[in-house]
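Reviewers of the previous submission asked for a worked example of the structure-prediction workflow described in the proposal, so we include one complete record here. The input consisted solely of the amino acid sequence. No template or homolog information was supplied to the procedure at any stage.
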Amino acid sequence: MDFTYTETQDMIRDTLSRFLADSYGFDARQKMINSETGRDPGIWSALATELGMLSAPFAEEHGGLGGGHVENALIMEEMGKVMAIEPYLQTVVIGGGALKAVGGAQADAIIPSIIGGETTIAFAYAEPQGRYDLANVRTTAKADGAGYVLNGHKGVVYCAPWATHLLVTARTGGGHRERNGVELFLIDANLPGIVRRDYPTVDGNRASEIYFENVAIPGDALLLGGIDLIEHIVDNATVAVCAEATGVMAKLHEGTLDYAKQRQQFGQPIARFQVLQHRMVDMFMEVEQAKSMTLYATLHLDKPASERMAAVSQAKAKVSRGANFVGQNAIQTHGGIGITQELAIGHYFKRATMIENQFGSADYHYERFERIVIDEAN
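From that input alone, the workflow returned the following structure tokens.
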């Protein structure tokens, strides 16, 4: 199998890498996350209009570059290297991926505005009781004439403070935890009855608790596909987060190696100590294995559901464990300085820790993989 990137993919990666290096220095990022809004909207605008990055995974008929999952993974890895707080995952990978899947008038109307940077989307799917079960949904969307009335609560909705639209999972029928009746709706984020409580997250992002109180939504807000569509876009998002993790892990390893070469103990750099050399090699191996598993899962995202889900769970379990190992060893090597606000390594550690459980912990994905294998055997 040929694992080399195309000329266009290399161009996307190199162009984005140079842009982010100029825009996302550690001090610049700190200034952004400590500002009132938590971001610099000019960067998102530049990604859309100057670099055309938001068009990478979309079809040419919508003004895109004709790419797909590999392009998303490349972009997410580069964003991981600088801990970018841009809503690429929520808007392009999740929102854009859902629209690509359903196609039709909805995709034709909204994808061009995503590419242009005008539309940003937040994915409101998690509920306090839900854990990682996508069918454990209490938010309801009851039919009302030609539309629906939405009621419920969604927690930790990343990027919601900046969103123009919300992609919401809600139950139109069926009992609690039943797969039947869970649907996906794309709605205006400013509709009457939407109550939002915003807060900063530990990794420097912004999120919201969102409450829907008799929110009237139009009938065409429904994206047909049900739980199968929701599972597919969450798998796409899971692999994108794995790609981001490879960027974060690479910087954790790189930063730890640089520190070990500079830190003096007993009259010599600690990088000369054999036990730390072994640690650096183990960290490097975890980074490389995470990259390989992420690419493996990326290439399986359009396979049949069971094959796709198995590959995604294998990758996420490996990446979650790897992110934990690399992050913990980076902090241990740095000592107390590793958890200070002034040093970048602590911030990479926080993001790696969040990624461990985002869209499912290692234990959850081990169990999901086991269920898939047993079902296939039967």
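The chain has three domains: 7-119, 123-224, 227-377. We consider this example representative of the routine output the project will generate in years two and three.
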